[in-house]
Design a protein that fits this description.
By secondary structure, the protein is mostly helical. It has 25 helices and four strands. It has a two-stranded antiparallel ribbon with strand order 1-2. It has a two-stranded antiparallel ribbon with strand order 3-4.
């Protein structure tokens, strides 16, 4: 009992530390430009990470979850929604990712943001982001989860537009905010439907009641579709993915935090957390599968033709998230969460390494102005190489094992799906090795040759890179297929969370065969090796930026999705607004209001003439008025 109470107190403290950090750095640090705010904010997240480790190790088969009631939040008539925390294996895993990777990004940011005028505001927003992400992850009911969901949206808006004096940054922040609101509306409607259908918003109670409903129920279909619409906004899936690349307007650590440890993982977490509802809605699962596949392919093809180092990684995130949704659509919840975990390591590594490149080149982000950086910033090159190998799925790095888990599920679904998943995986190899060879191997550009101040980043930035590189290299060994001795630590750890969902579906990650594993190992690896050689020949030489032709223009133009949205939604909305302003507002409302005012003024000018002060005149007017009233009553 004492152990449970201790864990309950610790879980409650997870909210306290980032909130304290937010208040101190935001309100009390004033205009100081030192490292104090970064140290304070990082310490708060460090304390959270220590608590997360204790909670992670404290859970066991005898204590599968820890529930903590903080206070009674909403209680009206029969409606009772508490503000309570649930720590189970899924939320404990997310705690390690959010606080662990978040801590490394905080530490890195101390060096990256040094000297910035808004450094205290930056770390205040950073701690606020962590706070809301923890609310999202730890919530025991959908309403509290929605509060965290909206909170990370607000935090991302503040951080993307952090350098607000640049108008383009404000536009990017507004775009992210508005597109997320579209998805949030779906989540909100889904939440209302959950309450109407189940009479509660408590996640565990909803799952228990749903387990007794037959698969294909229409209400569950609508609920899961609405929740998935919310997930498409937060996790940047088709059709709501265009905000994520534009979110690169914020400082690079912001990109790392959003892409690796917090916001974009929320959609994956929501579907995994609601796995019972989704497996009972086969149509929604098929839609998730299709959207995931399309997003992964579209994101990968666009990434190949981007020339901004951060934009390449941004579209890579879109593609990798699509890969995770594909796993969810296949019913491989553990596979999706495993790739989410490894992706957090190597995507944070790649973004922070990209930040180190940008730092060395005095804020240059165009890869056409780079090249030959391998010898100038060797540590950054080494960790970027590790991140590239990991995300490309080359053994024995982490991405290989997480991708293998998803590829296995895809091949078991059917050969066609397996080949599609393999194609998506190969796209990653192309755009990442193109980026690596262009930035570090290609001949130095004139800009690099003329820059005599290129140097490695300070230790406060490089040490987090080394830690993330180590995790990217070794994290995959916690889940290995039979060919490598079959280690299923990750799958077994999450198994209690997904047991109910697995019992409701067939073929859920359990029918592995040696033949399939050989197939998904040998064929992709052979193709990856061939692609790396082709990429080296093409992108490490002078032909790296040959003019694009034909369908390549479609990819380079990002499928013209922004232009299509501009044509279909933005311009009609602007034209409608202008028409409304010029006709209804200016021609009708303004004229009516102005004429009423004019008539009132004119009438006042005339009526004031009767104020003569002559009592005889007033008596005559009074008598005439009485006579008029009498005639009126007599006639009518």
């Amino acid at each position: 009992m004492e152990n449970i109470q201790t864990l309950q107190v610790l879980s409650a403290l997870l909210f306290v530390f980032p909130l304290i950090g937010f208040l101190i750095t935001g309100l009390l640090m004033g205009q100081k430009k030192g490292n104090e705010s970064g140290i304070i904010a990082s310490t708060m997240v460090l304390l959270n990470f220590v608590i997360s480790v204790i909670l992670f190790t404290g859970l066991n088969p005898g204590l599968p979850k820890v529930e903590t009631l903080l206070f009674n939040w909403i209680k009206v008539a029969d409606i009772s929604i508490p503000f309570s925390i649930t720590v189970d294996n899924l939320s404990a895993l997310m705690l390690l990712i959010v606080n662990g990777v978040g801590l490394l990004i905080h530490i890195y940011s101390i060096g990256y943001m040094k000297g910035d005028d808004g450094v205290n505001r930056f770390f205040s927003y950073f701690n606020l982001f962590i706070f809301f992400m923890l609310v999202l992850v730890l919530s025991s009911n959908y309403l509290m989860l929605f509060i965290g969901w909206e909170g990370v949206g607000l935090s991302s808006y503040l951080l993307i537009g952090f350098w607000y004096k640049d108008h383009a940054n404000n536009d990017a922040a507004k775009k992210a905010f508005i597109m997320n609101r579209i998805g949030d509306l779906g989540f909100l409607v889904g939440m209302f439907m959950i309450f109407t259908h189940f009479g509660t918003l408590t996640i565990s109670e909803v799952a228990t009641q749903a387990s007794s409903i037959h698969a294909g129920d229409r209400a569950l279909l609508l609920i899961t579709l609405c929740l998935f619409i919310g997930a498409t906004g937060k996790s940047a899936q088709i059709p709501l993915f265009t905000w994520l690349p534009d979110a690169m307007a914020g400082p690079t650590p912001v990109s790392a935090l959003i892409h690796a440890a917090t916001m974009v993982t929320a959609g994956i977490y929501l579907v995994a957390r609601s796995s019972v509802l989704f497996v009972l809605s086969p149509v929604t699962m098929q839609i998730i599968l299709v959207i995931g596949v399309l997003t992964a392919i579209v994101g990968g093809l666009i990434a190949i033709y981007q020339n901004d180092i951060k934009k390449v990684l941004a579209y890579s995130t879109v593609s990798q998230l699509g890969f995770m949704f594909m796993a969810l659509g296949l019913g491989s919840f553990s596979g999706a969460m495993f790739h989410l975990t490894t992706h957090a390591f190597f995507k944070a590594l790649l973004f922070l390494a990209a930040g180190s490149v940008i730092h060395a080149l005095s804020d240059e982000q165009d890869i056409r102005k780079m090249g030959g950086l391998k010898k100038k910033i060797p540590l950054t090159f080494a960790v970027f190489l590790i991140g590239t190998i990991a995300i490309s799925g080359i053994p024995p790095f982490a991405g290989f094992f997480s991708k293998e888990m998803i590829l296995t599920a895809a091949y078991e679904h059917g050969m066609a799906m397996g080949l599609i998943a393999t194609f998506i995986s190969l796209l990653t190899t192309i755009y990442m090795f193109r980026l690596l060879f262009v930035v570090f191997y290609k001949q130095e550009s004139a800009e690099v040759s003329a820059n005599h101040h290129i140097h490695e980043s300070p230790k406060v930035m490089t040490w987090p890179l080394v830690v993330l590189a180590t995790l990217s290299a070794i994290a995959g060994f916690i889940q290995m297929p039979a060919l490598f001795g079959e280690v299923r630590l990750f799958d077994n750890y999450l198994s209690p969370v997904f047991t109910s969902a697995k019992s409701l579906i067939e073929n859920a990650e359990e029918h592995f065969s040696i033949g399939t594993e050989w197939l998904i190992l040998i064929v992709p690896l052979a193709l990856i090796g061939l692609l790396v050689w082709i990429c080296y020949q093409r992108f490490a030489g002078d032909k790296a930026f040959a003019p694009v032709k034909g369908i390549q223009q479609l990819f380079a133009g990002k499928f013209y999705v922004d232009e299509i949205y501009d044509f279909l939604f933005v311009r009609p909305t602007l034209r409608t607004s202008l028409l409304t302003r010029e006709t209804i507002d200016q021609q009708i409302i303004n004229r009516v209001i102005n004429n009423i005012g004019f008539i009132t003024v004119a009438a006042g000018k005339k009526l004031r003439l009767v104020q003569t002060g002559n009592i005889g005149f007033y008596l005559i007017v009074m008598v005439l008025s009485i006579v008029a009233v009498l005639f009126y009553n007599l006639i009518f």
